[in-house]
Amino acid sequence: MRKSSIHRKCIPNGDLYDPILRPWTKNFVAYVTLNKQNQDINEGNRGEGPRCYCSHHLPPSFVSTRRRRTAEMAAAVSRDDELVVKSPSDNRSYRLLRLANGLCALLIHDPEIYADGGPAPKPNEDVDMDDGDDEEDDEEYSDEEGEDDDDEEGEEDEDGSEPKRKKDMGSSEPVIKKAAAAVCVGMGSFADPPKAHGLAHFLEHMLFMGSSVFPDENEYDSYLSKHGGSSNAFTETEYTCYHFEVNREYLKGALDRFSQFFVSPLVKAEAMDREILAVDSEFNQVLQSDSCRLYQLQSHTCSQGHPLNRFTWGNKKSLSNAMGSGINLREEILQMYMSNYHGGMMKLVIIGGEPLDTLEAWTMELFSEVKAGPLLEISPKTDMPFWKSGKLHKLEAVRDVHSLFLSWTLPCLHKEYMKKPEDYLAHLLGHEGKGSLLYFLKAKGWASTLSAGVGTGGTQRSSYAYIFEMSIRLSDSGLKNLFEVITAVYQYINLLKQSEPQEWIFKELQDIGYMEFRFAEEQPPDDYVVDLAENMLFYSEKHIISGEYIYEGWEPELVKHVLSFFHPDNMRVDILSRSFDKQSQAIRCEPWFGSQYIEEDIPSSLIESWRNPVEIDGNFHLPRKNEYIPGDFSLRNASIPKSSNDDNPRCIVDEPFIKLWHKMDITFNVPRANAYFLISVKDGCSSLRNSVLTDLFANLLKDELNEVLYQAYVAKLETSLSVVGSNLELKLYGYNDKLAILLSHILAASQSFSPKIDRFEVIKEDLERAYRNTNMKPMSHSTYLRLQFLRQIFWDVNEKLKVLATLTFPDLAAFVPELLSQLHIEGLCHGNLLGEEAINISKIFQNTLSGQTLSVEARHGERVLSIPHGANFIRSVRVKNDLEENSVVEVYFPVEQDIGKESTRLRAITDLFSNIIEEPCFDQLRTKEQLGYTVDSSPRMTYRLLAYCFRVMSSKYSPVYLQSRIDNFIDGLSALLDGLEEETFEHHKSGLIAQKLEKDPSLSYQTGDYWSQITDKRYMFDMSKLEAEELRTVGKEDVISWYNTYIRSSSPTRRRLAIHVYGCNSDIAEAAKLQEQSWTAIDDVESLKGSSQFYPSLC
């Protein structure tokens, strides 16, 4: 797979790669997420860093006077409304603004933000500027589980839940879009002093602690929280990005508070110790992440004196040691700030519904106060090599995995973004079709996945060099034949060197890039402003939007030049595995993560053979032309008036074998469509054995289809096939031109599928490894245990592992025909498809699949445990990874079964309760008590069972102590709710209403909302609108009554389930203490379920 060249954000423990569908990303950044309002009702979000009250200011000479010299500032600026090239499908207006202090701003007017005619503020109007109360902050960690490496197999992430974004699907009530802004500062962790590792990241944390104008540390977070907003920040190697989104009317007030980050932040010396703990807690989250360990090993073994040779996360040890060695950390932070946080280093992006002139006036008023400085210029800085060549680094993995990483350093290619030679090579080296490197390695039984390219992170795309990495997932056989795998890599590289660069391949990439730009789907505003602010650092002003899509100027000599760096003397080799003989070799220890590794010399004879491969295997050849690149971009809705189209999906096929919903898109007007299908199969999970065989079948089928699916993927027509409960879920999404052709191919292959014994062994090995890796993270482990407790049928992954070991090829060959002998399909076609085209898609199923209709009685429906009123169940287990220090406590309160429209008010009140207590919960448990990095309180929806959940993860405290502090907070909620002022209550309510009416930014988001209604069999496509309407009549007394009924400890109807996962530093024997406090310990879950009542199945 070719690694994505498009900039995207991820957390420090980001995936090594996704082996099936998504582009590879490895973007190691220190990521902070604040006050995330758009929560996943399913799993929620976690907290990040504390905020503290500060009194020490920057030097007075550095602090600007508020609201000064507006007329003078207005004259010292240039603007351009025509320079930035935008997509033909983009109806927004752009203005590039250059301030006298050097700051460059991109202002975006989105006419849809106030499309309903809502009141837009006037240029000089400061909406809610005095609305700064004393609520504490609510900073949250955006990535749900912090999972690393592979997508974990098993049941832990399946919650039968709502989509992440709950939006209004109808048009009878106006939908709302948010405003957003971002600032990228051209300084990151490469600027850390040698004796203060993590200082840039620490500075990022400290800027949230208030300013001279808004001294309350929580003012910014509180303002956003009350007005449907959220805020993020992350530190990269050469830049730091801060961004927020907020309800449209409150953009000016949010900008006012945001701008002070860059004008007059407070930095209080006595608050720094507490913030160091926050940075340390963040680091502890990733201690057991294989991807982070590998990154740090590569940094640790980098050439001495190179900027990469450092510890960019920072933790208590690195920052406290700096202070212990005589470094005044506060002075270092101030010096870093004053040297780098000036207008010449900053790129600002604002998107709002106000006219460009209004946005310009606000920018001039607020950001002209930023200190002036020289313009940032990112240029190559050194020719120092990153690593010593000829070395093999073997890193002990946390997870059960064999991964090979080959890295080549290339020249900095920032200025070649229009030609993208690295993408051309990534396309070929990462290809998965016949004749490719991966195809060859899979045929040998040595590998299952391969990705190649320059990653999107700051390390991979720095001004020092680009790092081109190839990551290969090896089988046991591949690990044994490691050097033969590398030999095959160099044979393919030699094929490329001997072949002239092919213009037709470049032209394919060019066509796909222009197609993506021409029909670019709108992103959520918060993501969009970040992407553009990052782009402003690397692309010319003209290409801020289009730079990532452009392929212009075919230069074969440039491709050859870049290819010349692919030789063994410029290669780093890393192996990530648990299968090393550590007894006979010198073990080394990386000092920050404590990970063990071995460094070996690669035999010189091998290096010489890779320099000049004697032969190129005859199976290698360049890919064939891609038949899935679309050619028809016509819009099917061109002649359909909006008034003639139904607001919601309609059921257009309702037959015993298949039921199909359809909605023609009239909103986004792109030649894309999404076709989702839930395929009920015969006895897919009726037994433990069948469940494992179904997993094997799905993985083998994907493997069989991989060549075709990859070609379609390159052409932006993607496919997902997964096991969901007892069903198969098939999704096709992308350009609609070839969608039906691809579906026909998939179904035909499924119908005639006959597994091959050689691939059976490889896929079985992969599945075994995936089962072993399930629950390696304590957060996903707690979710898994909760679902195991609640679901009537739940096959334990350890039992699945035992069964898998007994299965043979004949077992699978006999099972597949039986599995597919009876079927039922329910699907959704949404997008640029006519009703007739959708009906034809249903006929593809009917004409291709020979299975009989699966009866209604035989279709599996999920049933969820009905915990008795007054029950207090607790499940205590140890972490699966013996080195994992983090413990997790998850306290789950069932509410009621969601029976559809009749439950609308209950869902609305539950969401409002969450909105009200979210910030106080975080402030008390995370900021004040410093329990741990992750603090979450949010609703859950598990197969139509509505519930509420509190969750804390900590490396410092035991589950027993965490439980006591959660209980203490819950007991204090009565006083909090009673004392809630009516005005504050109405702020929370109006913010939540706006959130529920927020417009979906793209077709894919809207499809996800529709699909969740179908799979949950609720079919309330206007659910969010109904909830918003219901919220208007909800009073504070309703929320108090809800709390008193379902959460309060004295309630006779309260039900409680606690999951405790004990980290290696906590003693599970402490669990006995809780049994003395009216808890009922559950060790045998299946026995309990055997004697319990279950809710009727609704989905």
Written overview of the protein:
With 1099 residues, the chain is of the alpha+beta class. It has four domains: 30-37 and 49-125 and 181-367, Metalloenzyme, LuxS/M16 peptidase-like (Cytochrome Bc1 Complex, Chain A, domain 1); 391-608, Metalloenzyme, LuxS/M16 peptidase-like (Cytochrome Bc1 Complex, Chain A, domain 1, 2-Layer Sandwich); 651-853, Cytochrome Bc1 Complex, Chain A, domain 1 (2-Layer Sandwich); 872-1090, Metalloenzyme, LuxS/M16 peptidase-like (Cytochrome Bc1 Complex, Chain A, domain 1, 2-Layer Sandwich), CATH 3.30.830.10. The protein is 35% helix and 18% strand. It is built from 32 helices and 30 strands. The strands form five sheets. Strands 1-8-9-7-10-5-4-3 form an eight-stranded mixed β-sheet, with helices on both faces. α25 (904-928) crosses α30. The longest helix is centred in the middle third of the chain and has 27 residues, at 688-714. It is globular.
Topology (SSEs and partners):
Layout: E1 30-34, E2 46-47, H1 70-75, E3 77-80, E4 93-99, E5 104-109, E6 140-141, E7 179-185, H2 199-206, H3 219-226, E8 230-235, E9 240-246, H4 251-259, H5 272-285, H6 290-300, H7 316-324, H8 329-340, E10 346-352, H9 356-367, E11 391-396, E12 403-410, H10 421-429, H11 437-443, E13 447-454, E14 466-474, H12 476-480, H13 482-498, H14 503-518, H15 525-538, H16 556-563, E15 571-577, E16 588-589, E17 596-601, H17 604-611, E18 650-654, E19 658-664, E20 672-681, H18 688-714, E21 717-724, E22 727-735, H19 739-751, H20 757-773, H21 778-790, H22 797-806, H23 809-819, E23 822-831, H24 835-848, E24 852-853, E25 872-878, E26 887-897, H25 904-928, E27 934-942, E28 945-954, H26 959-978, H27 982-996, H28 1003-1015, H29 1023-1031, H30 1036-1046, E29 1056-1062, H31 1071-1075, E30 1080-1081, H32 1085-1090
Parallel strand pairs: 5-10, 11-15, 19-23, 23-24, 25-29, 25-30
Antiparallel strand pairs: 1-8, 2-6, 3-4, 4-5, 7-9, 7-10, 8-9, 11-17, 12-14, 12-15, 13-14, 16-17, 18-19, 20-22, 20-23, 21-22, 26-28, 26-29, 27-28
